[in-house]
Specification:
The strands form two sheets. Strands 1-2-3 form a three-stranded mixed beta sheet, with helices on one face. The protein has a three-stranded antiparallel beta sheet with strand order 4-5-6, with helices on one face. Helix 4 packs antiparallel against helix 5. It contains five helices and six strands; from the N terminus they run H-E-E-H-H-E-H-H-E-E-E. Strand 4 and strand 5 form a beta hairpin. The protein is α+β, with helices and mostly antiparallel strands and about 180 residues long. It is about 45% helix and about 25% strand.
């Protein structure tokens, strides 16, 4: 039996184009476009870029100052559950900070880290409010959900969004062998 090369290659190319074209169209129109619409319709979102893999959805968010980050996460996990599915949601917020906010956060970092390590989460807002008294014009908002603590710093022009995971990464133990 002699195989004809041209019809064989043509059918393979057409099959691959239909298969991968269908997969691309599905991912573009059934997942990415609705997810982008869901995120950008939330108040305070300037722009979003994302990478969707089988295990994770990576969102890079450009937010306006005083945007409710916890509300956005809740909006995504509740309204976007059908789009995200069982994938893990990973957020990265574009930093629109300035030198003043960065210096203030560096002063607050140690007591916040200590409260996180001791799992005394109620100390975080109290500590930040005490430190806020020495910085006129600075607004601090701290909210928590079952996975993260969200800290928003703003001086009206610049903003800094910090996401602190409540479940820290586990350190491995090295053997002495």
């Amino acid at each position: 039996m002699k195989l004809r090369l041209v019809p064989l290659i043509t059918s393979v190319v057409i099959s691959a184009a239909i298969l991968f074209g269908g997969w691309f169209a599905y991912s573009q129109f059934a997942v990415e476009a609705p997810l982008k619409k869901l995120v950008t319709e939330y108040e305070g979102v300037n722009n979003v870029q994302f990478v969707i893999t089988q295990k994770q959805v990576d969102l890079k968010l450009d937010l306006q100052p005083k945007t409710d980050l916890r509300g956005l996460v809740e909006h995504l996990t509740v309204d976007g559950k059908s789009l995200i599915g069982s994938r893990k949601l990973k957020l990265t917020v574009v930093d629109h900070s300035n030198k003043v906010l960065d210096q203030w956060w560096s002063k607050a970092l140690f007591p916040v880290a200590e409260a996180m390590d001791n799992k005394k989460y109620t100390e975080i807002p109290v500590t930040l409010e005490k430190l806020q008294e020495g910085a006129p014009g600075l607004s601090v908002n701290t909210v928590m959900d079952n996975q993260n603590i969200y800290v928003t710093l703003s001086d009206g022009k610049a903003s800094k969004f910090i996401i602190l995971p409540r479940v820290p990464g586990e350190m491995g133990v090295w053997s002495n062998v």
